[in-house]
Design a protein that fits this description.
heterotrimer, A mainly alpha, B alpha/beta, C mainly alpha, B: alpha/beta, D-Maltodextrin-Binding Protein, domain 2, 2 domains, about 40% helix, C: mainly alpha
Chain lengths: ~300, ~350, ~270
């Protein structure tokens, strides 16, 4: 994320010290209500699986072994690298990354457009973007399923205007998952970017144009670096939830292959009832995300 | 902030005030009991009934194990889950004398493998799981599980299977004619290979959508519960529910007495109430499955009595899903993960 | 002046975004008027599901669930926005301090942990400390996971506001509180609105965590809806969803009208 302002002597430093205690509520709420439970889960990842859910308090690395090492169906073949779960991670990561990119390509222009409206209409536009989310995601995804079907409205419209002759088999494909992910998380890209662009000082663009920069150059070299905090915030809010999504993959993708979300869910709410393994997969996922977040935050904190 | 906390604290005390005498907490599937029947029980006994819902046997087990035990009096798990919960020590037991209607339990449902002699549970509803085929698409013989596991060309790529390990592996085992909980390597290997080959012909995995894909035509054949298939037919889909010759899955939902039930006496009253043939029939008329209670037939509606989904041909056998031991279950878990990796 | 704000095609993409967002809702609205019990096959026009919503056997349950969902979302989003604003001030204006990274990770923790893990872990935690599950536990859980959704837009906004604004105010002998209330807060406005809206819809939509930490008999709209899925979604769910949309549109139009009126009376005063 965004780095703190560089220290300046006297007034600034005092001010900085005064605002720091404002973190107390955050530490209190997330620290007790989430960090403690999550630490418990981290411990669970190293405990012995109790049959049908739950844990026994005996230390083991079995969960991580299951993740990384393949000994065949019966567990007696020579140890090899287990690709099953790595592939599941890879599948989820590229789907989420692509969804983030597409959300950005759609969301940035939308956020820009909204931010350049008259001040009193901007809030209305924001509401327009979020109103659909008053309807439960499950219901919206089921409706999206209806639209994408072979004999659904989308295919019928495409056939009617003569673009295609046979219905496109969109449902139960990766494309459908992608559409579902974009649909699920688009506002999470639009709103943070809007918040940043709204603050943008347009005289910067004018200066660039005066210096004979093209529109496109102005956008990529002046605007985007300035509103980058908003773009980064949006990317985080789309990418991380999309990584663990399972409604779109299940209902639109046909649930033929596990994604990270459904794999973890299966360990707790499915018939496998393997809490330590579910915890271990989560720990691996959280570690990857945390590393990415901190690398990005470090880059952002460096003075440019 | 303080006022807000006070208000929410008040709300929580209000909601837990109902914990006093005269209440009953039921952990149930959604829309699986007619509201009028609950109201009738409340009127007869003065007991205040609260119903909470879960979406799958496993989700219920997880939430009870994570700390909800002691909050509910009764739950409605499926057959194999009764056995699992019994093994986990999550169930309380009762004596037959505690229920005047205990004798109404149909004899064939009394000494069931998952709860021999009925010490913890009473029958709620039972039904079967097999598959249905859209007869507009495929007109051939559908009396075999090969329709799902080795489909004819017309159905290839148009099949939905339940997104449920237990049902898919049990039906697969029936198709191959192997036991449900085996340690035999050759058998397990053949099950694994057969499923992976069959998956190439499947369009999707989905349990909640099992009915809708048949009605909408997204799938031309699909694994499904018998009552769900009846609903698909009622919504206008030309589907036929099959009772395959290799066998099909029979399931029974049971009302169990939970351990640490806050209102045990009321729970026993409620279970006894549900064993009354008239009340059992009311549930059946609503849910469109079968009651496990003697004498319920005469209260059943015509459409339930004659429903093709509820009347397997004579001689076809159904099997319960078995709960395997830990070592064996590990192998089946691996097969399922392998299928969905 | 207008030139640098305008990019050709941006309006088009915005319209595409809105179409993508609203198209599935049309399906929801249309099938809420379906005469049959199906959500995929049309059986003629009927208002029966709207009657069912208010008078059917599940009416009370869904009514209560809707009330719980909306109140929890309102309270959780508001508290999360307050906590997140405080956190953003400290993180962006607090200079370099030890634990900055750890705090940054902590704020984003609710995003990083898969929902089902939060659900199971939180329930175990609540039952360990002996907190009875109910309205309060759901609210606490919602406040927690709403924080990053409020924080990220607010922090993004705040980092675009140079500290010299508050500094100037303080130079003119404004107290810290005055500088915040009179200068920074109005500047933060769009960030606060964005953060609050995201937190609100996230809370309104949550199923998995709520389902675990709610008490017996306490229901929110998503838990009521997910429960119904096992028996097959019926058009009554579509009717409820359409009504929710109606309420939100009404809510937005009202706030717009009030806003307009306030604005016009303000301009008269000037």
């Amino acid at each position: 994320m965004v780095g703190p302002a560089t220290d300046r002597p006297s007034g600034e430093a005092t001010y900085a010290r005064i605002v720091r205690p404002l973190l107390l509520p955050t530490w209190l709420v997330i620290g007790t209500l989430l960090l403690l439970p999550v630490l418990l889960m981290v411990v669970y990842a190293f405990l012995t699986k109790e049959f049908r859910g739950g844990v026994e308090w005996k230390f083991t690395l079995a969960a991580f072994e299951q993740f990384f090492i393949n000994r065949g169906l019966f567990g007696d073949e020579p140890a090899q690298i287990e690709w099953t779960y790595i592939n599941i991670f890879w599948r989820s990561i590229w789907q989420a990354a692509l969804a983030t990119l597409l959300c950005l390509l759609m969301g940035f222009p939308a956020a820009w457009y909204i931010a350049t409206r008259r001040p009193e209409t901007r809030t209305i536009w924001l509401f327009l973007i979020t109103i659909p989310y008053w309807v439960n995601l499950l219901i919206r995804t089921v409706s999206l399923r209806f639209i994408l079907r072979d004999n659904g409205p989308l295919n019928e419209a495409l056939i009617a205007i003569g673009i295609i002759t046979d219905p496109l088999p969109i449902l139960n494909s990766n494309l459908a998952v992608q559409v579902g992910l974009i649909y699920s998380y688009l506002p999470f890209m639009v709103l943070p970017i809007y918040a940043a662009v709204e603050r943008y000082n347009f005289t910067l663009s004018e200066a660039a144009v005066d210096l004979y920069a093209s529109r496109w150059q102005t956008l990529t070299e002046i605007v985007i670096p300035v509103v980058k905090p908003g773009i980064v915030a949006g990317a985080i809010l789309v990418f991380i939830p999309a990584l663990g999504a399972f409604l779109a993959p299940d209902l639109l993708g046909g649930a033929k292959n596990f994604m990270i979300g459904s794999l973890i869910d299966e360990q707790f709410r499915g018939s496998q009832g393997n809490w330590p393994f579910g915890a271990a997969v989560s720990v691996i996922l959280m570690t990857l995300v945390l590393i990415a977040l901190l690398l990005q935050a470090r880059g952002a904190r460096r003075p440019s | 902030m303080r006022r807000f906390l006070a208000v929410t604290a008040m709300l929580t005390t209000l909601s837990s005030a109902a914990l006093a005498e005269g209440s009953l907490k039921v952990y149930h599937w959604f829309e699986y009991i007619p509201q009028e029947l609950v109201e009738q029980f409340e009127a007869e006994t003065g007991i205040d009934v609260t119903i909470d819902t879960f979406e799958s046997n496993e989700a219920m087990l997880a939430s009870l194990k994570a700390g909800k035990l002691g909050e509910y009096d009764v739950a409605v798990p499926g057959d194999y889950m009764v056995q699992i919960m019994r093994g986990e020590g999550l169930l309380d037991s009762y004596k037959p004398e505690e229920m005047s209607n205990f004798g109404k339990i149909a004899p064939e449902w009394l000494d069931v493998p998952f709860d021999p002699g009925r010490q913890h549970s009473i029958p709620y509803q039972w039904g079967s799981t097999a598959f249905s085929v859209n007869r507009d698409v495929y007109k051939g013989d559908i009396s075999t599980l090969g329709i799902i596991f080795n489909p004819p060309d017309e159905l290839k790529g148009k099949i939905n299977v339940l997104d449920s390990q237990g049902e898919v592996l049990a039906l697969g085992s029936l198709y191959l004619g192997i036991p449900q909980c085996t340690n035999d390597r050759a058998q397990l290997k053949s099950l694994n290979d057969m499923l992976i080959a069959a998956k190439a012909n499947w369009a999707s995995f989905g349990s909640d959508t099992a009915k809708d894909v048949l009605v909408s035509g997204d799938a031309a054949a699909g694994m499904i519960y018998n009552g769900f298939s009846a609903k698909a037919r009622a919504e206008g889909a030309n589907v036929e529910y099959a009772f395959p010759k290799e066998g099909y899955v029979v399931w029974m939902d049971n009302m169990v007495l939970l351990k640490n039930a806050p209102n045990r006496a009321n729970a026993v009253k409620f279970m006894n109430f549900l064993l009354d043939p008239k009340n059992a029939a009311a549930v059946t008329n609503y849910a469109a499955y079968n009651a496990g209670v003697t004498g319920a037939e005469k209260f059943l509606s015509e459409s339930i009595l004659k429903s093709p989904e509820n009347n397997p041909p004579k001689g076809q056998k159904g099997e319960f899903i078995q709960a395997c031991d830990q070592e064996t279950q590990k192998l089946y878990d691996a097969i399922w993960t392998n299928l969905k990796k | 002046m207008k030139g640098v704000r305008h990019y050709p095609g941006f309006l088009g993409i915005t319209i595409v975004c809105l179409m993508v967002l609203y198209f599935p809702l049309m399906v929801v609205a249309v099938y809420s008027f379906n005469a049959s019990t199906s959500i995929t096959a049309w059986g003629g026009f009927s208002l029966r599901w709207y009657v069912d919503v208010f008078t059917g056997p599940e009416a009370e349950r869904f009514g209560l669930a809707t009330w719980n969902s909306i109140t929890i979302a309102l309270i959780a989003a508001s508290l999360a926005t307050i906590i997140a604003t405080a956190a953003a001030l400290a993180m962006i204006r607090g200079g370099r301090f030890r634990g900055w990274k750890a705090t940054y990770g902590l704020i984003n923790l609710p995003l990083m942990v898969p929902e089902i893990v939060v659900a199971v872990a939180t329930l175990i935690f609540f039952s360990t400390i002996g907190l009875r599950t109910g309205y309060l536990t759901v609210l606490l859980a919602h406040i927690t996971f709403c924080i990053p959704f409020a924080y990220l837009p607010i922090a993004a906004r705040l980092s675009g506001i140079e500290p010299r604004y508050e500094q100037a105010a303080r130079d003119l002998y404004a107290t810290q509180a005055q500088a915040f209330r009179l200068i920074l807060l109005p500047l933060l406005g769009p960030g606060l609105v964005s953060g609050w809206l995201l937190a609100f819809i996230i809370s309104l939509d949550d199923f998995i965590i709520t389902n675990f930490v709610k008490g017996a008999g306490m229901e929110t709209l998503p838990t009521a809806i997910f429960g119904s899925v096992k028996q097959g979604i019926k058009p009554n769910i579509m009717a409820i969803s359409t009504l929710m949309l109606g309420v939100s549109v009404l809510f937005v139009s009202l706030s717009y009208l009030i806003n307009q009126r306030g604005r016009s009376s303000a301009s008269i005063k000037e």
